[in-house]
Design goal:
Elements: E1 6-8, E2 24-25, E3 28-30, E4 34-36, H1 42-51, E5 56-59, E6 64-69, H2 73-83, E7 92-94, H3 98-104, E8 105-106, H4 112-118, E9 123-129, E10 144-148, H5 153-162, E11 166-170, E12 195-197, E13 212-215, E14 221-226, H6 231-240, E15 244-245
Parallel strand pairs: 4-12, 7-10, 9-13, 14-15
Antiparallel strand pairs: 1-3, 2-3, 5-6, 6-11, 7-11, 8-9, 9-10, 13-14
Helix pairs in contact: 1-5
Amino acid sequence: MVKGRVLKLINFAGLRHMRSPASAMNGYVTKGVVIKSDDMCAIRQAANLLEMGQVIALPTDTVYGLACNANNPNAIQRLYEIKGREETKPVAICVAEFQDLRHWGKADHLPDELLGQLLPGAVTIVVNKSVYLDNPFLNPGTKKIGIRIPNFDFIRNVSKSFRFPIALTSANRSSEKSTLNVNEFEKLWSSLGAVFDGGQLGLQEEQRAASTVIDLSEKGYYKVIRDGVAGEHTVRVVQKFGFREV
């Protein structure tokens, strides 16, 4: 059995999909377990682990991501540790619906019509944090937060089940390329509460560019922070709504 904290998951199903470096006995699961994301209980299992403060890996509409509870200080610090990322370098959060985006971020100046043409999709919208996003270790030194609503049922359903914002960054060590299948970040498995395997996410190398990141925190203005996979479409949309480049 792999060393590490042992976790209890309720209604654990799909044990046939577990593979090294994980093992299970009597419903207890060690760190690093790989679970097929289409297993019956995978969504609830992922939400349980987030509630317990664990860092997990899961598929998105672009690349695989590392995820944790965005309002849990210990979980965020652990996320940065696993990623090997400087704590001053921002991470985004993932939510399920527009009302969640408006709850955790200050986005009243963004019309639903604009959001509806960008999300769900491979776009991270940067706005100012709301008072409800109160983790001092989440993007310290900035009032801004990037928010995603991925066009991928599994992570959106996990977000709905969890009910809180999910901190999200690509599943790779800092300075290494982003990943399109779970085997590409196998060296991180033993550090994670679980790995949710959604299969190969794409065959084109361009997909590793991940989401487009655009700052819409100032009414009427935009700034592209990362071009990503949806840069041209995103700029066309915001310009159509009268936003001007900073």
